[in-house]
Design a protein that fits this description.
The protein is an alpha+beta fold. It is 16% helix and 31% strand.
Length: 308
């Protein structure tokens, strides 16, 4: 699984800067219907590290790679990873001024598929949060009707993409509107048709991506496993990828620290979580969309085992 955009820089940022940028060009998400979306404080870090969602009084869901944080300067896969009790789930519009803070009791890692852990994890809280309504979990069939309309992503962090390795944080809960474009195959080839078309698009709009990564690595990150991952991006101004019009307020997308944040869909008057942020398409925060881990069969079985 390709986590270069989120995992490796997340570990580095935890070790050196405690910085974790999130929603690009986001809007404030202060509405009560988003109150179950919170952030993770990891170890001694003073800023948000990942996003998580309350789905039961004593359970949260996030990305599995968020559960392997380290405060050492070792590379990914090394170092001393932190125990669950050094994680803190914080609710509220402002990470610095939380309305609720609860430690983690344990992590339950995502189920295995073909020898790889799906990038989703459930955290049991040290105590229940009884005065906040959890979000319900939904598992769409990901057929044509499920690709219509906007989905909502919630996360904490910056409102513009970082540059020159600077990670300006707001630590505020924000939202972005995204469209699900693919549930299997290669997400970017699904949009652009050919490798050459994609490369031309990146060269025009995200040249820094090709400076940080090669086109084959970007395509590898865009591979999806049916019923386990979906791709979502901001389709405004680029439904027709041969004629791009940049929205006045810029494209919306996810970035570091947004990992584990929910992909939400409204079903009538009910807001449900259908997936969590896994990784982006490249090493930097280019607006080429995000891979979300969804609540497929194996994840639903795990939830039943946990009684969620």
């Amino acid at each position: 699984m390709h986590f270069l955009k989120y995992v490796i820089p997340t570990l580095i940022s935890l070790a050196f800067t405690s910085s974790a940028p999130a929603v690009i060009n986001g809007q404030a998400a202060n509405e009560q219907r988003f109150e179950a979306v919170g952030a993770l404080k990891i170890g001694s870090n003073v800023d948000v590290s990942c996003t998580a969602t309350l789905i039961a009084a004593n359970w949260i869901v996030t990305a599995d790679h968020c559960t392997y944080a380290s405060e050492s300067n070792e590379e990914e896969g090394n170092g001393d990873y932190l125990p669950p009790e050094q994680y803190e789930f914080r609710l509220g519009n402002d990470f610095k001024k939380p309305t609720h803070t609860v430690r983690l009791k344990r992590w339950v890692h995502g189920p295995q598929m073909n020898g790889t852990t799906l990038d989703i994890a459930f955290g049991e809280l040290a105590g229940p949060i009884n005065d906040v309504r959890p979000l319900s979990v939904a598992s769409p069939r990901w057929i044509s009707g499920d690709f219509a309309g906007f989905y909502i992503h919630i996360g904490y962090g910056v409102i513009e993409a970082f540059s020159n390795k600077k990670f300006p944080l707001t630590n505020k809960r924000q939202m972005a509107y995204l469209t699900v474009t693919a549930a299997d195959g290669n997400a970017l080839l699904n949009l652009f048709g050919t490798k050459e078309n994609l490369e031309s698009y990146i060269a025009s709009y995200h040249p820094q991506s090709l400076e940080a990564d090669n086109i084959d690595s970007i395509l590898q990150a865009a591979e999806l496993i049916p019923q386990r991952y979906v791709h979502a991006w901001d389709a405004r101004g680029r439904t027709n990828t041969t004629k791009i019009e940049i929205p006045p307020d810029g494209w919306q997308d996810t970035c570091f620290g947004d990992s584990g944040g929910p992909l939400l869909r409204e079903y009538g008057s009910t807001l449900s979580i259908v997936g969590v942020v896994s990784h982006g398409m490249d090493r930097i925060c280019s607006s080429m969309g995000t891979s979300f881990t969804v609540f497929g069969p194996e994840v639903q079985d795990l939830m039943r085992q946990l009684g969620i």
